[in-house]
Amino acid sequence: MDTLIMVAQLLLGLSILVGLHELGHLLAAKMFGMRVEKFSIGFPPKIIGFQWKETEYSIGAIPLGGFVKISGMVDESLDAEQMSAEPQPWEFRSKPAWQRLIVMLGGIFVNVITGIIIFVFLVYSKGETYFSRDQVIEHGIVAYDIGQQIGLQDGDKILDINGVPYESLNDLSGGNALLSSDGYYTIERDGERMKITIPRGFINSFSNEENMSNFISIRFPFTISEVNPKGTAVKAGIQKGDKIVAVNDQPIEYFNELQSALGEYKGETIELTLVRDQQEIITSLDVMEDGTIGIAAENLIEPVRKKYTFAQSIPLGAERAFSVVIINARAMGKMFTGEVSTKNVSGPIGMAKIYGSTWDWLKFWSITGLISMILAFMNLLPIPALDGGHVMFLLYEMVSGRSPSDRFLENAQKIGMVLLLAIMVFAIGNDILKLFTGS
C-alpha cells in the first residue's frame, strides 16, 4: 500500500506538471497560428485519446513525460517526410524566429509560473514554523552522527554561517550552507568562540531524508507527554506531565541529556528525581537494555510561528521558488568539479520516495512546486531534444541571421535523445543501487 501511495503521488504530480508544460507550448503555438498535430501526457503507446479540431489529445502508457507535435518542427518524432516537403504557412519553420523562440519557452514559462503560484499559496496557507537563531543560541544543539563527523558537539551554540547570521535552524542544513565554498559555522562552546569547517562535498552526506535528520536538532527542555504501559517507567509510577530533573543525582535539563544518561545505565537500576505539581519525587526503576524507560517527551520550546497576508506571500513565494533554481544550478556546477556526487541524481523511484508513503496534501504541493521549478531549470539547459537546445539554436539564428539546416537539427536531436536516454538510465540505475544499499 505504501508503494502505491508513493507511485500515485508521483504520477499525479508529474501529470499535472507535464500537462501544464506541454500546454504552454500548445497555447503559444496556436497563438501564432501554428498547427499542433498532437498533445500527449505520457509517451506512447496511447491509452486513450480524442480529436478536437486539428489536434489529437491523448494519454500515453509511459507516464514519465509528454510532448506536443507542432507541424514543421524537428522534434522527437524525426518526421523526415514532413520536413522534406515545401514549408507551409501554418508550420513552425515558416514563422519568424522570435515567435518560434516564444513557443519553445512556453513550457518553461508555465512551469515557472506554476512553481511560483504553488509556493505563494503554501506561504499564504501555512506560513512558517521554525526554531529561530535566538532559540538555537539560547539552548544549543544536539549533534548526531553527521554533525559529530565535522566536529559539532551537544550543547554547541551556532552563531552564524560563513560569518553571516542565519534566521532559522533549517538554514543550518540548507543549500546555501552546504554548497558554500570554504564554508564554516561559527559556534560558541563553553564560552569560547571557534569555527567548524564545512568540508568540501559535505552535502553528499545528505543523500536522503533519514540522513537529513541525522545532522543536528535543537536541544529542548521537556516534560513527559506519554508513558508506555510496556516500559519500566509505568511500574515506577511515572506519569504524564512529570518533569525529570536528575538521574542518579546528575542534573537533567534537556531531553538529550536524559537519553545520554540512560544510555550509560542500560540494564541497570537508577534513581530518578521528578517534579510533579511543584513537588520533588525520587523513585527507582530499571533501564531497559536499549537504554530507554518507556516515555515520550514534550518539547517545551515554542517554535516561531508566522502568518502572512496574501500580498506578503507573493514576493516570499517567488523568492523561495527561484531559490530552488539557484541552489540546483549551484549543485549542478559542483557536480562538474566533483564536489557534489552524481549519486545524488535521482530518477522516478527516488522522486516517488521523496513524496513519501503517506498522502499529505501540503507535502504533495510543496514537492510538486519544487519539481516544477527544477523541470523549468532542466528544460532550459542547452541540450538538443530539450527546450533549451531549441532555444540555443534559435538564438544563434537570431544573432547570425542564418538558421541551422534541417539535417543538422535532425542529427542534433538524435544526439540529444541519446544523451537524455543515458541520463535517464543513469538516474534509474542510481535509484536501484540505493534500494539495495539503503544509501
From TrEMBL:
Residues 184-253 form the PDZ domain. InterPro entries: PDZ, PDZ_6, PDZ_sf, Pept_M50_Zn, Peptidase_M50. Its cofactor is Zn(2+). The chain crosses the membrane at residues 101-124, 361-383, 415-433. It is an enzyme of class 3 (hydrolase). It is found in: Membrane. PROSITE patterns: PDZ. SUPFAM superfamilies: PDZ domain-like. It holds the Pfam family Peptidase_M50. GO terms for cellular component: membrane. Coiled coil: none annotated. CDD domains: S2P-M50_PDZ_RseP-like (cd06163). Keywords: Hydrolase, Membrane, Metal-binding, Metalloprotease, Protease, Transmembrane, Transmembrane helix, Zinc. Its EC number is 3.4.24.-. GO terms for biological process: proteolysis. Signal peptide: none annotated. Gene3D superfamilies: 2.30.42.10. It is a multi-pass membrane protein. GO terms for molecular function: metal ion binding; metalloendopeptidase activity. Belongs to the peptidase M50B family. This is Zinc metalloprotease. It comes from Cyclobacterium amurskyense.
